[in-house]
Write a structure and sequence with these properties.
Blueprint: H1 2-14, E1 27-39, E2 49-60, E3 64-67, E4 70-77, E5 81-89, H2 91-98, H3 110-115, E6 129-138, E7 143-151, E8 159-171, E9 174-185, H4 187-194, H5 198-201, H6 203-211, E10 217-231, E11 234-244, E12 259-272
Antiparallel strand pairs: 1-2, 1-12, 2-3, 3-4, 4-5, 5-6, 6-7, 7-8, 8-9, 9-10, 10-11, 11-12
Amino acid sequence: MYRRTLITLLLLVAHGAAQGTEISAPEWKLSLVSGRGLIENPLDGREDGETFLLPAFSYYGKRFFVSNLTAGYSLVENKRFYIDLIAQPNEDGLFFQLDKPEVAAGSVTSFVQLREATEVSEIDRRISLMAGPSGTLVTELADVSFSWLYDVTGVHHGSETHLSIDKQYPLFDGAIGWGIGAVQKDTDLVRYYYHFTEEEAGVFARRYAAVYPPGDVTDQYVRLQFSYPIGKGFAVRLAGRYSYFDLDGRLPRFIEKPETLSWFAGIQYSIGNGR
């Protein structure tokens, strides 16, 4: 139960964008939302995540910054364009940890493995740390961001390419923000998270790979968020994200819900001098 709550928190805050920005003095902000949040897990046989508390933290110094799960260092920054080096955990690994099985796949007997593939609900995968360059172009209509991230922890030696368009606008006395994006994940990453190993499926692993060969995938998402102040340090906070998981390149048996909706709603309390 505690593991599910923790990973749900990580996935919810991971949905936000983070990048460096031009500032004159260090800024920080600590927030806590009390309400309800839900992460739909796309994996077959795995439960969704739910939480009633959502923390968030950000710090922006002259060069170094932290925004929830993303840490970075600004190389170039001005009002219209900046380049950063960033690091953040891979989302696919978090989904496996959201409903982690009590019995790992390695404990399944060889006899069972020879007869049929292990259930996806019994499989464990590690979380990888992805790091690399990120660039953002700031315009009046939208902010366009591009990043290329590589597995620096050696979990799968794969990479991700992120492209997103985001913007936040004032609305009444609050703010509304939107974003659309796509994440391309390479074959090494997809093979590790979304295909059976021979230990897990025996001869079926090669048969599955022949019918559904591992390949690059491009996942897409749309997100929307709204905040409205209701007192000093307090605000109403609403956010939602629709995600589509590309099945080409993945073994379809791993994905139960290629389309998911994750959201949270509640009252936020914030301290700090950040925006």
